[in-house]
From TrEMBL:
<comment type="similarity">
    <text>Belongs to the short-chain dehydrogenases/reductases (SDR) family.</text>
</comment>
<dbReference type="Pfam" id="PF00106">
    <property type="entry name" value="adh_short"/>
</dbReference>
<keyword id="KW-0560">Oxidoreductase</keyword>
<dbReference type="InterPro" id="IPR002347">
    <property type="entry name" value="SDR_fam"/>
</dbReference>
<protein>
    <submittedName>
        <fullName>SDR family oxidoreductase</fullName>
    </submittedName>
</protein>
<dbReference type="InterPro" id="IPR020904">
    <property type="entry name" value="Sc_DH/Rdtase_CS"/>
</dbReference>
<dbReference type="InterPro" id="IPR036291">
    <property type="entry name" value="NAD(P)-bd_dom_sf"/>
</dbReference>
Length: 251
């Protein structure tokens, strides 16, 4: 079932967001992607520009207060309509514990994973709210949380803390929006092989060892399939929380 003609993806320049953007186009939807790497956004939009534009994008930091609004506005400008699904993929990791992680990264982590997400959630709720009251079409807000936002991790508690907080906000917004034709969904992936690990400063030798013990790890497309499963349910059905891990991942 195709519920969404236009899908917005915050953090669409790599990993899960990028894979989702590609599959959305393959499935016949149009997409609006965001991220800081303008070269990637421009190249993606260029690839899908003819015969009619199927992709547009916004170069922006996800913690900017106008991030989500710019995405909606760009969609209106390019497609003459706004998205009915917003998938919040923008986020980053940080390796280490309270005592071992790089303290100079803490503020940026909180700014993107938490404050930025809060601002995007509010903007989406505001944008979806007026039309959701009258329309029979369902709206979707899908947020990528994490397994370490559900199960306390000895290895990754600082990043995990941002996801614990995010999970709480997502469930709260789900309750608030449930009467307004808007489904708010949490996806909680375990290990997914993307740029996430190198950008979070993981020890890649250790990561490969872990994959030998507990892998194969997920590919971005595995998570994307779970997202589509949510987006394509009939409007009266809401799968509101999916935890998806590699079969051999222990915690
Ligand atoms: N990979 C995993 O094992 C894993 C597991 C559980 C949850 N997750 C979550 O899944 C989500 C996507 O991660 P991924 O694995 O796909 O990693 P990724 O390949 O590194 O992608 C992260 C995306 O977020 C964007 N982003 C990061 N910081 C941003 C900022 N300040 N402003 C705007 N965009 C920003 C990046 O775009 P730019 O750099 O171009 O800005 C990129 O598009 C994240 O929320 C992550 O926490 C990942």
């Amino acid at each position: 079932m195709k519920n969404h003609d236009i899908v917005a993806i915050s953090g669409g320049t790599s990993g899960i967001g990028r894979s989702l953007a590609e599959s959305a186009i393959e499935r016949g939807s149009r997409v609006v992607v965001s991220g800081r790497r303008g070269d990637r956004i421009h190249a993606f939009c260029e690839t899908h520009s003819t015969p009619v534009p199927r992709a547009c994008g916004v170069v922006s930091d996800a913690s900017d207060s106008d991030h989500a609004n710019r995405i909606f506005d760009e969609s209106q400008r390019t497609f003459g309509a706004t998205p009915t699904a917003y998938v919040l993929c923008a986020g980053r990791g940080l390796s280490g514990t309270i005592t071992t992680s790089d303290e100079t990264q803490w503020e940026e982590l909180l700014r993107v994973n938490l404050l930025g997400a809060m601002r995007q959630l509010r903007a989406c709720a505001e944008r979806f709210n007026p039309s959701a009251k009258t329309s029979t079409q369902v709206r979707d807000i899908v947020v990528i949380g994490s397994t370490v936002g559900r199960v306390i991790s000895a290895a990754n508690p600082v990043y995990g803390a941002t996801k614990f907080a995010l999970h709480s906000l997502v469930e709260s917004l789900r309750q608030e929006m449930s009467s307004r034709n808007t489904r708010v969904t949490l996806i909680e992936p375990g290990f997914v092989k993307t740029e996430f690990q190198t950008r979070a400063g993981y020890d890649m030798e250790r990561f490969s060892q872990m994959e030998q013990e507990q892998g194969p790890f997920l590919a971005a497309v595995d998570v994307v399939e779970a997202i589509w499963f949510v987006l394509e349910r009939p409007p009266h059905v809401h799968i509101d929380d999916i935890r998806i891990r590699p079969t051999r991942q222990r915690v």
